[in-house]
Design brief:
The protein has eleven helices and 21 strands. It starts with 5 loop residues before the first strand and ends with a helix. It has helices spanning 48-56, 79-84, 105-116, 131-141, 156-166, 191-208, 280-285, 332-346, 371-383, 409-418, 448-455, and strands spanning 6-10, 16-17, 33-37, 94-99, 122-126, 148-152, 170-174, 212-217, 236-241, 248-256, 264-270, 273-276, 295-302, 305-317, 325-328, 353-359, 391-393, 396-397, 403-404, 423-427, 441-445. The chain is elongated, with a radius of gyration of 27 Å. The strands form five sheets. The protein has a nine-stranded mixed beta sheet with strand order 6-5-7-8-4-9-10-11-12. Strands 13-14-16-15 form a four-stranded mixed beta sheet. With 458 residues, it is an alpha/beta fold. Bound molecules: adenosine-5'-triphosphate, magnesium ion (MG) and zinc ion. Magnesium ion is lined by residues 105-106, 128, 174.
Length: 458
């Protein structure tokens, strides 16, 4: 077989070079050249018969006549996983699951593969572990299936051949960074390999109408390509997140062509693998000490799901040097802003205070709607006055110390009521339709000052 030709294309300016270079000679950017297959030069079908054959492959359909129910999602036993996928596994979809090393990607996918195997033949391709290692993991997790096939292979040509012969109903690839196309000279895991292989899997997913799951390692930009370079190729991107020393794992959708993004599934990691946490708010609040100062309840919305989380803060006098600000689970800039507002608008002087903020459960909160709970926790710790145990807090804090309305308020309030809280502090400007949560008293406040007055015990 003739060696396929490749050249190097700059990802910044699009210029092509015959050889790899560290710097693009045209736009002077560094590390932007990526090996790419040279187009064979043929301009496609030219004879009328060939063109007819091309057209016959597909026909434009009138929108009104397209059958949208034509795909049947496969439901997995773990609802948390279905939720992140937008309601189950979609046939013909290419799903990328990224995550830090050792976070539990292989574990999750092996569990999913066994579940999927109850619906059809599943093929788990591993380039990272031997079949024995995978078997050992399955034994440890206590799962097995006679319709789950393990293939340890990294050569794409061989993989495609196996898929052709076996025609699996589900395909799992662990990981996209270990498979390679022979046509490309770059090492497995390089941008060109990762993209080239993912494009092949996308073709198979669409051609055979089977779901394909790709595992990807999250890596810094550089020689090894992380899942980021694949995000536009695949249909769905999920990230498995969590801290290694916490048992909780969040599976978050950052892109989904078949469902809401930012949806989270919550799992707990143990020696028998990942199990779903169906009532996360309860779990996150389980260890709360009701009358301790420096603790408040935030109501955040992740995707479509409301979550109650405990925010803890500790203000303590700086022993030497500059006061420290430590944010765990909340954005540092957000924390600095809140501290500045507390200082200037509420009159809490914290120039000589170290401030630590922690979100319980290892959750990362990015929403401004939890500002008020963070501010309240800090003020509570500083003043050594606990927050009423029956109150939750919702609201964005503005620079003037005003409280700003937030989205999804009704979803949040329902969750607050469901978990047995009696009151919820909300911004006075909130647009509220009739909410049918009678047990919940809404405390409408215009400013951070008013909110603290309502929430802190005297
Ligand atoms: N023998 C064991 N008993 C209990 N837990 C284990 C055991 N072996 C591994 N684990 C857990 O499984 C986790 C590793 O899971 P897994 O191999 O699925 O991660 P991964 O994301 O695929 O990692 P990698 O990036 O190395 O592929 C470990 O962090 C550990 O918590
Ligand atoms: Mg793994
Ligand atoms: Zn360039």
């Amino acid at each position: 077989m003739a060696k396929t030709k490749t050249h190097y294309v700059c990802q910044e300016c699009g210029s092509t070079q015959p050889k790899w270079m560290g710097q693009c000679p045209d736009c002077r950017e560094w590390n932007t050249l990526v090996e790419t297959l040279v187009n064979s030069g043929k301009t496609g079908a030219t004879s009328p018969a060939a063109r007819q054959a091309l057209v016959a492959r597909n026909t434009p359909q009138v929108l009104t006549e397209i059958d949208a129910d034509s795909y049947q999602r496969t439901l997995l036993p773990m609802d948390e996983f279905n939720r992140v996928l937008g309601g189950g596994v979609v046939p013909g979809s290419l799903v990328l699951i990224g995550g830090d090393p050792g976070i539990g990607k292989s574990t999750l996918l092996l569990q999913m593969s066994v579940s999927l195997a109850t619906e059809g033949k599943a093929l788990y391709i591993s380039g990272e572990e031997s079949a024995q290692q995978i078997k050992l993991r399955a034994n440890r997790l206590g799962i097995s299936s006679d319709r789950l096939f393990i293939l340890t292979e990294t050569n794409m040509t061989a993989i495609l051949e196996h898929i052709q012969q076996m025609s699996p109903d589900f395909l799992i690839v662990d990981s996209i960074q270990t498979v390679y196309l022979e046509e490309l000279q770059s090492a497995a895991g390089s941008v060109s390999q990762v993209r080239g292989c993912a494009a092949r899997f996308q073709e198979i997913a669409k051609r055979d109408n089977i779901p394909i799951f790709l595992i990807g390692h999250v890596t810094k930009t550089g020689v090894i390509a992380g899942p980021r370079v694949l995000e536009h190729i695949v249909d769905t991107v999920l990230y498995l997140e969590g801290e290694r020393f916490h048992a909780y794992r969040l599976l978050r959708s950052v892109k989904n062509r078949f469902g809401a993004t930012n949806e989270v599934g919550i799992f707990e990691m143990s020696d028998i693998g990942l199990s779903e946490v169906a009532n996360p708010s309860e779990v996150f609040l389980a260890e709360r000490l009701p009358n301790a100062s420096g603790s408040s309840i935030a109501v955040t919305v992740e995707g479509t799901r409301p979550l109650l989380v405990e925010i803890q803060a500790l203000a303590s006098t700086t022993s030497f040097g500059n006061p420290r600000r430590t944010a765990n689970g909340v954005d540092m800039n957000r924390l600095l802003l809140i501290v500045a507002v507390l200082t200037r608008r509420v009159g809490i002087r914290m120039g000589d205070q170290d401030i630590f903020v922690n979100v319980i459960g290892g959750l990362q909160i990015s929403e401004p709607a939890s500002d008020l709970a963070v501010a309240t926790a800090i003020a509570s710790s500083f003043r050594n006055r606990p927050v009423s145990a029956d109150i939750a807090l919702v609201g964005e804090v503005g620079l003037s110390g005003e409280l700003r309305a937030v989205g999804h308020l009704e979803t949040r309030l329902k969750e607050v009521a469901k978990l047995g809280f009696k009151r919820c502090v909300v911004p006075a400007s909130s647009q509220l339709k009739q909410i049918k949560t009678p047990p919940l008293e809404l405390v409408k406040t215009r400013s951070l000052n008013e909110a603290l007055e309502a929430a802190l015990i005297h």
